[in-house]
Specification:
CATH topology of chain B: Rossmann fold
Strand content of chain B: 5-15%
Number of strands of chain B: 8
Number of helices of chain B: 13
Shape of chain A: globular
CATH topology of the largest domain in chain A: Rossmann fold
Distance between the termini of chain A: 55 Å
Number of helices of chain A: 12
CATH class of the largest domain in chain A: Alpha Beta
CATH architecture of the largest domain in chain A: 3-Layer(aba) Sandwich
Oligomer: heterodimer
Number of domains of chain A: 2
Helix content of chain A: 25-40%
Strand content of chain A: 15-25%
Distance between the termini of chain B: 28 Å
CATH architecture of chain B: 3-Layer(aba) Sandwich
Number of domains of chain B: 1
Number of strands of chain A: 18
Strand order of the largest sheet of chain B: 2-1-3-4-6-5-7-8
Chain lengths: ~400, ~325
């Protein structure tokens, strides 16, 4: 399918956009448990089920732990599966996230990013999915409701690729994206179905030397989820990393294929660079903040400031080369983190970006701004001040504070 | 073939190929392993097994070996029933789309007493409430044997475990064994039963009945652990028998809530003089050794009293049903 297809424009919030995409993806099993700000996804999907608009088995589990377990088990049986969660719910899934990636089950999960307790807070930040950074899942963060819709469709294509066979989190900022009504262009259902196709299963070799699909099948009994000790465990983990490497390519491929039918792409799928080619100062961020930053960059450019934005769309696998190439010529960089790594040296995004640029000769000066925790509003005026700070750093070559907290009383 | 038509004979059992194969790493005299080999003979066609983390999970699946001749899934400790939910949902969805060719596939979820009565109880209750079509089998060896004999809620009063050691002040576990089957019956399940491997025909018939239920079914199997109970490995079957004869573990089944004693327990109900004292069952089990001292005699007396009370209550429940 090469030609761009005719699309319909809908008014959807991020959660509704996710539910609508799942409806179009011919998902076999959805197992989920409600939690703010993800609730609209499961509510909307329940309506599709109740009205017979989908053939999906919808399992309202008694906890997120069982939701992820049921998704994993359904995926192991050969089904296409989806779930959604946030915050405490994602934290309760923690154990099963590792089991799911280790079992190479391509479960797709939307995470409406939200703060973690305590104190209890239902609003948006990235603490929840950042805590799952090393769970072996692919992490994609979207900028708006349109991208949430597009990324869910892409997620099935990426996760279920036999070379990847890894689960994937699509993160959308709680409330800022999940609950904000936006214009969303949607593809016709048949175009989506044709694009993602049926789930393909990897083939594996049995003890008898037979090649069979990797699933629970009475015709080809297979032991899934064994225990592997000192002699094999390490190889399993190393193979998972190979899946991540393959994902790096697959995400880019899907981004350009999808652009052909939809007319929409997000950078190269890994990083979304805005006005970076000749930029002297840049802000690196993930999620919805990039939208506001792009507007500020436009203003600054008119004022003659060579400013740019790099939105890290794919956080895992980390696009090392792409980050390095996009940022190596910038003089000063501010990395924005909507979560904290307590006792560490700055937030998780800062750590990655700074780390990646270490090998660049005459690398840029890099500072970290921790902001927006627990849904604290981030005004364009504050973001503009961060640009002013790094313009100053670029000019003087002097960094006063490497890690700062922005927009809070101290 | 329905349960009524199917006669489990020793010859039938012997001639049916094993589905839980030899070469697993269970201890000598392991009750659960003997039970597992037997109950897999009661399967009736295409079957998927899912198992909670525990002894029987680790002994049969040490990569790259397996004891399972059936499709088998393990994911974690507390979620055997949630695994079954996912498998059931997947089979239903895929069958609607013509992606499952078998007309029916049975699902068996297996867990020990920790994976059922304690950490796995929430997932089990949820899966049963949702009505998934699966048979949940609890193999109860009365403790966390896989991690080195710690207390579970299914450990009986008085037993010494590594987390309820027989001390100079506290004589082993003080609390009563959790009545898990009563909890499961309260879920309005179509089929709930108890069994022990000594009465193997009864046990296999109950497995088959559980599989035939179109929805969730629960089977509680008593499975002695010589290592954890500090008893002779050759006594597994003897204790499986004595537990029934002393009414420590009566065997019964409840179909749609109507409870009936199974023959070995029914015979005791009819002839109460045949009921053996709890002491006979406890003898030779090292986990109760400390109770045979003057200062702990009250624990033994209490154990007899609990057992009598629970047995009386069970008889009333069977009558009223």
């Amino acid at each position: 399918m090469e030609k761009q297809v005719k699309q319909e424009t809908m008014a959807l919030n991020g959660d509704e956009a996710v539910a609508f995409a799942v409806k179009q993806c011919d998902v076999d099993v959805v197992a989920a448990y409600p939690i703010t700000p993800q609730t609209i996804i499961v509510e909307k999907f329940s309506e599709y089920v109740a009205n017979g608009e989908v053939q999906t088995e919808f399992v309202c589990t008694e906890s997120e732990h069982s939701a992820m377990t049921a998704c994993l088990a359904a995926s192991a049986t050969g089904a296409r599966t989806f779930t959604a969660s946030a915050s405490a719910g994602l934290a309760l899934m923690h154990e099963m996230l590792f089991v799911t990636s280790g079992s190479r089950a391509p479960v797709v999960m939307a995470v409406a990013n939200r703060a973690l307790s305590s104190p209890l807070n239902i609003h948006g930040d990235h603490s929840d999915s950042m805590a799952e950074r090393d769970s072996g899942w692919i992490h994609i963060y979207v900028e708006n409701a349109q991208e949430a819709y597009d990324s869910i469709i892409q997620a099935f294509k990426i996760a279920e690729d036999v070379g990847v066979s890894l689960p994937i989190i699509v993160g959308l900022d709680g409330f800022t994206i999940s609950h904000t009504l936006e214009r969303v262009d949607v593809l016709p259902e048949d175009a989506v179905k044709q694009y993602i196709g049926e789930r393909q299963l990897p083939n594996v070799l049995t003890h008898e030397g037979k090649t069979v699909p990797f699933k629970l099948d009475p015709d080809n009994p297979m032991t899934m989820g064994p225990n592997a000790l000192q002699n094999y465990y390490f190889e399993f983990k190393r193979q998972q990393e190979e899946g991540m490497k393959n994902a790096l390519k697959k995400i880019q491929e899907v981004n350009s294929e999808y652009a052909k039918i939809s007319g929409r792409s997000y950078g190269n799928g890994l990083v979304d660079a805005y006005q970076l080619e000749d930029a002297e100062v840049a802000i690196v961020c993930i999620g919805s903040t990039a939208g506001t930053l792009k507007v500020i960059v436009d203003q600054l450019r008119q004022e003659g400031v060579k400013a740019g934005v790099l939105r890290l769309r794919t956080f895992r696998p980390l696009p090392v080369e792409e980050l390095r190439n996009a940022l190596k010529n910038v003089k000063a960089i501010a990395v924005m983190d909507k979560s904290m790594s307590f006792g560490g040296f700055g937030g998780p995004v800062f750590n990655e970006v700074r780390h990646v640029l270490y090998d660049v000769k005459e690398h840029p000066l890099i500072v970290n701004y921790i902001f927006g925790l627990g849904g604290r509003d981030t005004s364009p005026r504050n973001l503009r001040r961060i640009f002013e700070d790094i313009v100053q750093i670029a000019k003087t070559g002097h960094v006063e504070t490497q890690v700062q907290y922005y927009g809070l009383r101290e | 073939m329905t349960t009524q038509e199917w006669k489990f004979t020793a010859k039938d059992i012997a001639s049916k190929p094993d589905l839980f194969l030899s070469g697993h790493r269970a201890c000598a005299g392991c009750g659960p392993a003997a039970m597992l080999r037997l109950i897999m003979k009661a399967t009736r066609g295409p079957t998927i097994v899912t198992q909670a983390t525990g002894c029987m999970e680790i002994v049969g699946s040490v990569y790259p070996y397996t004891s399972w001749a059936l499709p088998w899934l393990h994911t974690a400790f507390e979620n055997a029933a949630a695994n079954a939910s996912g498998i059931d949902a997947a089979l239903k969805a895929m069958r609607k789309k013509g992606k499952v060719k078998q007309e029916h596939i049975d699902i068996i979820a297996l867990a020990g007493d920790g994976g059922t009565c304690d950490i796995g109880l929430q997932a089990l209750s949820g899966a049963v409430e949702r009505g998934h079509d699966f048979l949940f089998i609890l193999y109860d060896n009365e403790g966390y044997m896989n991690t080195g004999i710690q207390r579970s809620s299914a450990t009986p009063t008085g037993a010494a475990t590594t987390t309820t050691p027989a001390g100079s002040v506290i004589p082993g576990k003080l609390e009563k064994k959790k009545p898990i089957t009563e909890i499961m019956l309260a879920h309005d399940m179509e089929y709930v039963a108890t069994a022990t491997p000594y009465y193997w025909k009864d046990m296999l018939t109950k497995v088959r009945k559980g599989l035939e239920v179109n929805g969730p079914a629960f089977l509680h199997i008593f499975a002695p652990c010589p290592r954890g109970w500090r008893c002779e490995p050759g006594k597994t079957m003897e204790y499986s028998k004595l537990a029934v004869e002393s009414c420590v573990f009566p065997i019964w089944e409840a179909v749609n809530g109507k409870r009936q004693l199974s023959t070995p327990s029914k015979l005791i109900a009819l002839a109460p003089q045949k009921k053996k004292p709890v002491k006979d069952y406890l003898a030779g089990q090292g986990r109760f050794r400390h109770l045979y001292t003057p200062q702990n005699k009250h624990v033994l007396d209490e154990m007899q009293r609990f057992t009598d009370e629970r047995w009386e209550r069970l008889l009333q429940k069977c009558e009223s049903a």
